[in-house]
Structure formats: C-alpha cells, structure tokens
Amino acid sequence: xxxxxxxxxxxxxxxSAYSTREQVLEAVRNLRYKGGNTFTGLALTHVLEQxxxxxxxxxxxxxxxxxxxxxxxxxxxANLAAQxxxxxxxxxxxxxxKNADEAELRQVASEPLELSVYNVLDFPLLSSLVGKLTRVLxxxxxxxxHKETAGSSVKDTPVNTGPQLSPTDLKISAVTSxxxxxxxxxxxxxxxxxxxxxxxxxxxxxxxxVLEGAVSSLQLSNLTSHTEYLVSVIPVYDSAVGDGxxxxxxxxxxxxxxxxxxxxxxxxxxxxxxxAAQGATHYLVLCSAAPxxxxx
Length: 296
What we know:
Blueprint: E1 2-4, E2 10-13, H1 21-29, H2 40-51, E3 65-70, H3 78-87, E4 91-97, H4 102-108, H5 113-116, E5 117-120, H6 130-149, E6 168-173, E7 180-185, E8 193-200, E9 207-212, E10 217-220, E11 228-236, E12 245-250, E13 258-263, E14 271-275
Parallel strand pairs: 3-4, 4-5
Antiparallel strand pairs: 1-2, 6-7, 7-10, 8-9, 8-11, 11-12, 13-14
Protein name: COKA1 protein
Subcellular location: Secreted, Extracellular space, Extracellular matrix
Domain VWFA: 1-133
C-alpha cells in the first residue's frame, strides 16, 4: 500500500489493490508527485486510521511495517503519531532525502536505529538503499514471524476499535468570522489525548491542537473569514487510535461598510461617507480616474 502526503495525506493504493510485483511497479511508474508541506504526524495517523484496516487489506496475522520517505522536517508533531504506531507493534523505517532532519528520523523510527534509519543527499541516491533495505525488511519480518510462532507475545494492531474507543456527535456552534466552538460526546473509554486537526478545504496549512482525554470541547480562533474548514477530532490511546470524527463548517464573512455617499464635490476634492462595518479597525479607500484612470 502507498500513501503520499503534504498538508493532506492521500491514499494512492491500498494493501489489497495489487497482487503481483508487475502491477505494483506499474502503479509506481504512474505515480504523480504531490508537492507541498510536510505534515508527517498527520500522514502517520492517516496510515493507521485508513491504510492498516481490514477493509484496506490489512491482515491480522501479518507483520505491520511502515516505511516513511521524507525530504524535510515535519511541520507537526510526528513523534506522538509515531509512538502510537510503535505502541501497537508497528515497525517504522525512516528514510530521509536532502533536507530531512536526522534527529527527527531517529525519533520516529523503531529500534534498532542502525537498521531502521537511512539518509541520502539526493533522490537518485535512493537506489543505493534498495538492496540493503530489502534484505533488512525481509529479515525483520522473518524474525518477528518466528517469534510469534514460537509463542512470544506480539501485540496485534487493533483494527476495528468500534464505539468503545470512538467519540460521537461532533457539534460545531458559535461560528463567527474568525472562530468556532467544537464539542463532542466522548467514547465509553476516555482516551489519553485528543488530536484536533483543522485546515481550509481549498488548501492551506493544517493546524493541530492536542487536548487531554478528559476534555470534550474546544474553541478554534484566529481563523480566516468566509472560509470552509475541515475539522478532525482523533482519540489517541496508549495502544490504539480510535476512529476520528470529522466535520465541515464555513466561517462567516467579515461585515462590510454600507451606504457609500459622495458629497462636497469641488474641482479637486470630494467627501465620502458610509455606515461603519462592525469590528473594522481601519478602512482603506482607493480611488482612480475612470475609466482608464491615471494614478490611484
């Protein structure tokens, strides 16, 4: 399976999409690069919530491996999301290119780091890692599978958390031009934390707030006016991530000045007056000679 990310993660294909090497290689050849930001924490959460579920092809008995490929430092908390995956027995291999942060790669990756962290100076050099990484991955899968059959305990990834771990009934209220109030019903088993992620639906930088598990409401402020926002509320447990709640709401437009009037005309001046716009601190007045005017 493969997901690509910037501000918003995107599943390119699920674990169950292809069944032959040739099909996978053809899919890679047809992959279109997704530029943009580097929200690695959001991407790792997407992999857990969307890609490692049975309906995406994840098998309970199979080892779970995530290979992270990044060329920059994360703009959100990648460590928290990575720790959630690792607590579930999912191994993370971190590969950095160009401007990747070596310290962050080591923080995100699973132990032993000498086998799970790789860094190269440019994209063409990735080809030098393929042979070694393939051997390491295959060896790790065999080792873990052998431990499991020998009777050692290996954590199963919870694949269907159900209502016990998932909040419900997201309500968005008190919407203004720059704020909104979120509230939800907590799951039967309160989580350790909530991750609240919100960003403009037409593209923009995602922002994230982390709340204690006892809290079930939040006011979002400093928003952009007249903008549709996507909101996700994701419960995080010590050993699982519950299904997230999602909502869409638009902030109100800013109020406008009204009833523009012109008076006291002379050969080189005029007076303008208008009804005030609620909340405005300044006005910018532009004028130019019509129709093709000289200077403003």
